[in-house]
Structures are given as C-alpha cells and as structure tokens.
TrEMBL record:
Homodimer. Its EC number is 1.2.1.11. InterPro entries: Asp_semialdehyde_DH, Asp_semialdehyde_DH_beta, NAD(P)-bd_dom_sf, Semialdehyde_DH_NAD-bd, Semialdhyde_DH_dimer_dom. This is Aspartate-semialdehyde dehydrogenase. GO terms for biological process: 'de novo' L-methionine biosynthetic process; diaminopimelate biosynthetic process; isoleucine biosynthetic process; lysine biosynthetic process via diaminopimelate; threonine biosynthetic process. It catalyses: L-aspartate 4-semialdehyde + phosphate + NADP(+) = 4-phospho-L-aspartate + NADPH + H(+). It comes from Saccharopolyspora gloriosae. Substrate binds at Q157, R252.
C-alpha cells in the first residue's frame, strides 16, 4: 500500500512551499497526504494534487496511520510533537533546530549523506538550517572528489530567514525610504525609518534597507551567533568530518528570499577550476553559472523560486594551495527548508 505522509505546519510559510512542491512533482509516492496545523488553522481547505484536503488539528490521533510526518514548525513544537508522532508509529522528518545536533538523530542532505536516513534510533531525521544547506550540495560534491579540510564562509542571508515578520519589516523599510535621498550620512537611514513611524525594535537589530547587518540568529559565547555556530557544527555532521576547521560570519542583506554564501574551501588534494566545474556539472541539484567573459554569475534575486543551488565565481585562490573560492545562491525556503525535508521523505520510501 502507498505510504501516508503528513505535514505538520501545513498552513505556515514553509508548509505552504512544501504543498507547492508536492503539487508540482510529476508524481508522488504517497497514498494519503494529511495536513496538520494548530487549532487556529484546523478546518481550512487546501487543494493538494487536485483534491481538496481539510487541515486537521495537531493532536496525537492526527498521526494514526501515518508513515512519515514532516514537521515545518518552530523548535518547541517539534521538540514536543515529533516524539509523539514516533510513539504513534511514524518516522518524523523535522525542519526545526530541535534535534539537529542530537547524536541519535541524523542530519541529512540527500545528495550528500542519503544512507543516514536509515540510522535513526529515535525515529527522527533532522533537516539542516537553511544557511548550511545552501552550500551543502556543492561542498558535498567537492569533498567526495578532493577531500575538504578547511572552510571559511561569509553568508548573505535573506530577510525571509527571519520568517514573515522579517519579510514584512524589509518591505516596510523599503516603502518608508522610497524616494528619500538618505544613506549619505551616518544614522540618517535609521532617522528616516523612525520619522516614518517604524518601530525601533526590528528582527534584524539594525536597519536592513540600504544596509547590511553582520548579525543573524542569537548571541552565543565569545561573540559568535547561533547561525555561525550552526554553519560550523552542521557542516561537520553532514559531511562526516568531525574535525573540519570552519569559520563563518553571517550577515543579513536586504534580499527577500534566497541565501547566498561566499565560500573559501581548502582541500587535501589538488583542485582546479575546470575540475570543480566538472564536479558541479555532474550534480543534478546544482546549476553552474560561471562565465567571467559573459559576466555570468548567480544572484539571489534571479534564483528565488528555483529548486537547485546555483554556483558561480569559481576561482583557484591566488595565495592558497588546493583552495577554491566560489559563490552559491540557494532559495532558503525551498532547498533551504521545504524541498530538502521533502526529499528526505522521498529518500525514505525509495
Ligand atoms: C535565518 N537560517 O536565515 C535562519 C532561518 N532558519 O535566519
């Protein structure tokens, strides 16, 4: 019998993208596709693959008869409900940060470590943070060929990484500054936003329009942010290199959706731009856009809405041996969240 899949958080930002992905697949391996959400959204009707489906309320019984449950909800909801789904007989695939670093929970990117879906003592599989995920297809492919040793990355993270609140704030700031000749004097952007009545408190800690903000996530020890530590810890776990040297600086930029990263990757073996191109071209989830003569390179505004990761600006570092510098763009709501979670479920039933 075809397996039953359920989506918890079906009416949220990532859940909505998940349903869009399911609706646009050529075929799906599922019998029933059950939609689950909070009491507030229960009863809502959503069309999934041509059939109207009614959202059911999150409750233990909602998991009965379900084989795989995809969680697109905040950490605390996943932490509470994923174990309940497992108790009811399902495998939980979780898109939150609740279980990512649990040694008994695999952290999976299907192009990189698909075999890990079968090593899940707690019955839970975790989906990585979107910042890490955006570069994993490219790094996984390069690591297989050349052996990754060290990684230095700077992120350029979109406002939607901070949820709908982040998108709304960026749009409000852009609207408040439209037509204003600001940005030539320190502090005048913040003054214009205050004069337009925008609250000083923002999800980005500083104005994002006409600006970049070197802060994403929450404060951790020694000046690091949670996003920077996730890049380090999750990269090590996914790639299976516990000693990988990683240093990350995470920056928020005035882009609505699609995270970008500038990657400086050091390998054990000799690499070249031509060989890196060959590796990227062989990976179906990567689009290589790298022609300096034609000024071809990826940008987040062009990549948003796309499933693959886009890679460009590939260079052999001038002053470092066996080292590539490159730029990646990945839609943080698709491959960075809903798509990878869904692909984990597909991997489970393959
Ligand atoms: C962000 N990576 O961009 C986070 C979202 N999970 O804020």
């Amino acid at each position: 019998m075809a397996p039953t899949v359920a989506i918890v958080g079906a009416t949220g930002a990532v859940g909505t993208v998940m349903i869009d992905i399911i609706n646009n697949r050529d075929s799906v391996p599922w019998g029933e596709i059950r939609l689950i959400a909070s009491a507030r959204s229960a009863g809502k009707k959503i069309t999934v693959r041509g059939q109207e489906s009614t959202v059911v309320e999150l409750a233990p019984e909602a998991f009965d008869g379900v084989d795989i449950v995809l969680f697109d909800v905040p950490d605390e909801i996943s932490a509470e409900w994923a174990p309940i789904a497992v108790e009811r007989g399902a495998i939980a695939v979780d898109n939150s940060g609740a279980f990512r670093m649990d040694p008994e929970v695999p952290l999976v990117v299907p192009e990189v470590n698909p075999e890990k879906v079968h090593e899940r003592p707690r019955g839970i599989i975790a989906n990585p943070n979107c910042t890490t995920l955006s570069m994993m297809a490219s790094l996984g492919a390069l690591h297989r060929e050349f052996g990754l040793k060290e990684l230095v990355v700077s992120s350029y993270q979109a406002a939607s990484g901070a949820g709908q609140e982040g998108i709304d704030r960026l749009h409000a700031e852009i609207e408040a500054l439209a037509g204003k000749q600001v940005g030539a004097r320190g502090g005048d952007v913040a003054e214009a936003l205050a004069a337009a009545g925008l609250p000083e408190e923002t999800p980005f800690k500083a104005p994002l329009a006409l600006n970049v903000v070197p802060w994403a996530g929450s404060r951790k020890d020694d000046g690091w942010t949670s996003e920077e530590l996730k890049v380090r810890n999750e990269s090590r776990k996914i790639l299976g290199i516990p000693e990988l040297k990683v240093s990350a600086t995470c920056v928020r930029v005035p882009v609505v959706t699609t995270h970008s990263l500038a990657v400086h990757a050091v390998f054990e073996r000799e690499v070249s731009v031509a060989e890196a191109h060959r590796v990227f071209e062989a990976q179906s989830s990567i689009v290589l856009q790298d022609d300096p003569d034609k000024l071809e390179f990826p940008t987040p505004a062009a990549v948003v809405g796309a499933d693959p990761t886009y890679v460009g600006r590939v260079r052999q570092a001038l002053d470092f041996t066996n080292t590539l510098d490159f730029f990646v763009c990945g839609d943080n709501l698709r491959k960075g969240a809903a798509l990878n979670t869904y692909e984990i479920a597909e991997t489970l039933v393959k």
